[in-house]
Amino acid sequence: SFDIKPQDKIALLGENGVGKSTLLKIICGLDKDFSGKLKISPSVKIGYFAQELDNLNNEATILDDVLVEGNTVEETRLLLASLLFRGDDVFKKIGNLSMGEKGRVAFAKLILSGAHLLVLDEATNYMDIVSKEKMEEALEEFEGSIIFVSHDRYFIKRLANRIFTIEDRKLYCFEGDYEYYLAKNKYQKAQKEIGADFRLISDNIKRLELELAF
């Protein structure tokens, strides 16, 4: 079991195929085929960033698609400028953009959506270094909660204050940042190795004692 508290920034880690994206979809109410209970306050608005970028209208301009969220032109253009869409760039058709540019537009829609909880599935996949830095800055300033899947260690290290991992069909929660997780994980693995070595030594002693007895 787990909870997501206000201002949590949670990195969800695990090998490919363990169910990270599925868990995010369950939280967003997009996947209902699961056992257990999920409780989300009715007052919480969730914003979801999917790897497929399927919340974009390829026929619209950048400005028109982002304005669908109901914000003013001024605040929208200000955010878009911070995400490197300046001047007439905002009038580009979304269908003509690169995947990295589409990712920045999808992220702008998310930030302006009024969401209290951002759920991000590989949000930096298609972005160059400058674009990722701009996204990181915006997420650091975001006052709500975030849970995200990423394989970008720098992104995780900069943003996360809690770490969740999925291993062997179980969820493990680490109540600290990425450095804490690495240290704790290393310690736990060392303990397991020491335990295995101790059992091996113990078994060998018992075997030798039996041989000496005969």
Give a brief rundown of this model:
The chain has about 210 residues and is an alpha/beta fold. It contains seven helices and six strands.
What does this structure look like?
With 214 residues, the chain is of the alpha/beta class. The chain contains 7 helices and 6 strands; from the N terminus they run E-H-E-H-H-H-E-H-E-H-E-E-H. The chain has helices at residues 20-27, 62-67, 73-82, 99-111, 129-141, 153-159, 178-213, and strands at residues 9-13, 46-49, 117-121, 145-149, 162-167, 170-174. It has a 6-stranded mixed beta sheet with strand order 2-3-4-1-5-6, sandwiched between helices. Strand 5 and strand 6 form a beta hairpin. The radius of gyration is 23 Å and the shape is elongated. The mean pLDDT is 88.
List keywords for this structure.
214 residues, alpha/beta, 6-stranded mixed beta sheet, 7 helices, 6 strands, 43% helix
Note the overall shape: elongated
Largest beta-sheet characterization: 6 strands, mixed
Number of DSSP strands?
6
Low-confidence stretches: none
How far is the N terminus from the C terminus?
53 Å
Instruction: Tell me the Rg in angstroms.
Output: 23 Å
Instruction: Assign the structural class, choosing from mainly alpha, mainly beta, alpha/beta, alpha+beta, or little secondary structure.
Output: alpha/beta
Question: What percent strand?
Answer: 5-15%
SSE succession: EHEHHHEHEHEEH
What is the residue-mean pLDDT, rounded to a whole number? Answer: 88
How much helical structure, as a percent, in the residues?
A: 40-55%
Name the strands of the widest sheet in spatial order. Answer: 2-3-4-1-5-6
Number of helices: 7
